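Structure (tokenized):
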């Protein structure tokens, strides 16, 4: 990772470096310099955003930078991140940009960039952009007169994506299903309800009234207890919760039990293998997926490829190996037959179609794996000191690994998007999980927090 780009674009507190209008202006100029050359087929760039108030500030600065280098900007407004990836491809743009900090609170924002095929940028391209942004060269890439670009609003952007999303399930009739839908007061607040309503489902809306500040605030995929309670209250068939930019999704069954990304991946992999549509009979997951998922796949003859954390790592491995299903426990599910990134709406549609076609509730479909007891904890740190250079934590990690052996595991890593340390302990013995987590939290707290 460089000075600006992290594991998922540029992210930070809005109006504080690097998420400032000055940097956004330079990002626009740098993109114009890299993608606006004479060899490009078009000079179009699509810009979308979530519902954060700071999106207006960044959108204006980014647009100014782009048009100053002769690029044509197409503004699609608040739409899910995967919608921008799709629109970038369908509108024959050279790049797509989303202003979002995903599941982070409203105070943060970010800049995600897609290439012309709708994939997140390779490290080499990010490095090229970063070098331009942090130098004066990007500011010198201006054009004059008739060469200056222009920006325009795409009036039917939401409709284009809605029709595409519905087509991925062949406009499956969802009538008879009652769903609770939590859109996190984020990018899916309009599109989400429309998609499911148009397919005939009864939609009970929650957190679909963004005010610029309430995105992810006690709602959405990071607070699935909301849909769990509402599903029981309304006697719904299923609860669906997106995060702020709707690239991830978490479910709740009719009794309020949470169905996370691991179980969604498991049910989709099993169903796809039965139909003969699981490419190379392989599922791609990250190191955070539960060992119970691995056991379930092994029992059914499905290979599992493991990558580092981040949906970008997953999709890169999928492209390299020719796989079509992968994702993360957090709810990023990549259905590569339809999408180039995690897509909460398309994932939800696939799950609902599976429920309709099999006649089985989501609880039954999700009962395809047995989770190992586990705990995932996050602690905010002052700075991200290399874990191996700490005094106590590395020794506890080694002792934990030795004690758990092949009956469990421990993971310690820094978040790529926040100033946090993530700790995961997983084992067949729940008491061992709690005991080792307590020791890890104590050590990490003393060395990284106090």
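Design, position by position:
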């Amino acid at each position: 990772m460089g000075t600006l780009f992290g594991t998922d674009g540029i992210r930070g507190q809005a109006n504080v470096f690097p998420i400032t209008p000055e940097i956004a202006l330079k990002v626009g100029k740098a993109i114009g310099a890299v993608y606006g050359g004479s060899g490009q087929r078009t000079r179009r760039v699509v810009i979308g955003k979530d519902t954060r108030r700071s999106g207006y500030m960044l959108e204006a600065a980014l647009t100014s930078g782009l048009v100053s280098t002769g690029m044509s900007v197409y503004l699609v407004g608040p739409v899910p991140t995967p919608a921008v990836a799709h629109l970038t491809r369908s509108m024959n743009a050279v790049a797509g940009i989303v202003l979002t900090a995903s599941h982070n609170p409203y105070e943060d924002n970010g800049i995600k960039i897609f290439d012309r095929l709708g994939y997140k940028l390779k490290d080499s391209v990010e490095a090229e952009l970063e070098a331009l942004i942090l130098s004066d060269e990007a500011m010198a890439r201006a054009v004059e007169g008739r060469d200056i670009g222009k920006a325009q609003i795409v009036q039917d952007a939401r409709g284009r994506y809605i029709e595409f999303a519905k087509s991925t399930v062949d406009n499956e009739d969802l009538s008879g299903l009652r769903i609770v839908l939590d859109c996190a007061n984020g990018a899916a607040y309009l599109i989400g309800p429309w998609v499911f309503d148009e397919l005939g489902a009864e939609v009970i809306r929650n957190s679909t009234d963004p005010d610029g500040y309430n995105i992810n605030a006690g709602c959405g995929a990071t607070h699935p207890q909301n849909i769990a309670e509402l599903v029981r209250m309304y006697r719904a068939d299923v609860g669906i919760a997106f995060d702020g930019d709707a690239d991830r999704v978490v479910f709740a069954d009719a009794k309020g039990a949470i169905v996370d990304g691991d179980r969604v991946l498991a049910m989709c992999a099993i169903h796809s293998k039965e139909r003969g549509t699981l490419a190379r009979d392989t599922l791609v997951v990250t190191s955070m997926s539960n060992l119970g998922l691995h056991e379930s796949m092994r029992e059914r003859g499905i290979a599992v490829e493991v990558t580092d954390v981040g949906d970008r790592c997953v999709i890169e491995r999928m492209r390299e190996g020719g796989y079509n299903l992968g994702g993360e426990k957090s709810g990023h599910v990549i259905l590569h037959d339809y999408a180039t990134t995690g897509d909460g709406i398309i994932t939800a549609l696939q799950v609902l179609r599976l429920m309709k076609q099999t006649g089985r509730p989501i609880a039954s479909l999700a009962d395809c794996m047995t989770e190992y007891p586990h705990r995932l904890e996050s602690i905010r740190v002052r700075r991200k000191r290399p874990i191996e250079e700490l005094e106590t934590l590395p020794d506890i990690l080694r002792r934990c690994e030795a004690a758990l052996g092949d009956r469990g595991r421990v993971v310690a890593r820094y978040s790529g998007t926040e100033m946090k340390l993530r700790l995961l302990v997983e084992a067949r013995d729940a008491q061992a999980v709690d005991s080792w987590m307590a020791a890890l939290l104590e050590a990490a707290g003393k060395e990284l927090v106090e």
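Reviewer-requested clarification: The radius of gyration is 22 Å. The longest strand covers residues 108-115.
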